[in-house]
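Anyone able to model this chain together with PBG?
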Amino acid sequence: MFPVHRPRRLRRNETIRRMVRETSLSVSDFIYPLFAVYGKDVRKEVSSMPGCFQESVDELVKNAKEIRSLGVPAVMLFGIPEHKDEVGSGAYDDNGIVQTAVRALKDAVPDLYVITDVCLCEYTSHGHCGVIEKGDVANDPTLELLAREAVSHAKAGADMVAPSDMMDGRIEAIRLALDDEGFPDIPVMSYAAKYASAFYGPFREAAESTPQFGDRRSYQMDPANRREALKEVALDIEEGADIVMVKPAMTYLDIISDVRDSFDVPVAAYNVSGEYSLVKAAARLGWIDEQRMMLEVLTSIKRAGADLILTYFAKDAAKVLSSIGL
Ligand code: PBG
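re: yes, here you go
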């Protein structure tokens, strides 16, 4: 072997390193999450997520223009309603916060691809992702509400819907409802392998969706399970999911890789709030190089097999990639 084989030959300078690089990030990989709130001129920074804001629709529109001009193709929209109730009525109100924001975004920046998060947790008074019966989230009664929410988003002009609730059977329920209501061309991106993760902490501040009792472990997956992810993904594809997502990303790269190897549909990964906050916090303390760490994290997610990355770094990363000519 040695000295014939010297792998360092192909690492001698940046030109050759770039030529043999196996994975490259592109701005078209990114989907940027946004948080819509009622009001005007509201741009409130999420304290645990520096650089991320709860924004009123007028501010979202400004942000959307910037996002598009940076080349980021898509956003994932979350909404914070004015009132919450037991059954999350704000989620499927045709004049709800997400519906209003979708209309404004599609009107102002038509070529920005708008994906909506379909879930009840931001809209329920108890903060769970479905309706409560006997102290737990009741699966089947929740399906109809999720389907109504997805249809309502499609009516408002959403380009794609993304159910994140983890109820069994929701992809089929949503697909059938969209088809019935005249939206056969609206794709469904399913949060297929979504784990019950501590990394969602900062998001719950942003979306005001912390469960008021218990936790989400009766519907989100156990972080210890790997094979089960393939089952969840297979079911969602059978039910009609067009894109499947693994969430979180950084601590679930094995799952992204398994899903990539086992299925042919596009795979998305959600680089979640806690993963973002960790990097931002350490950077603030001066402990790490934020830019390099951000690119390394995103590259690792892509290398594991993700085609698309939902990330709060989308704008920052777009700026860096364009500055290095990518
Ligand atoms: C709603 C939802 C959550 C996230 C996306 N959709 C939170 C949760 O399940 O509690 C988390 C996103 C993030 O942490 O960035 N069900």
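The chain has one domain: 24-323.
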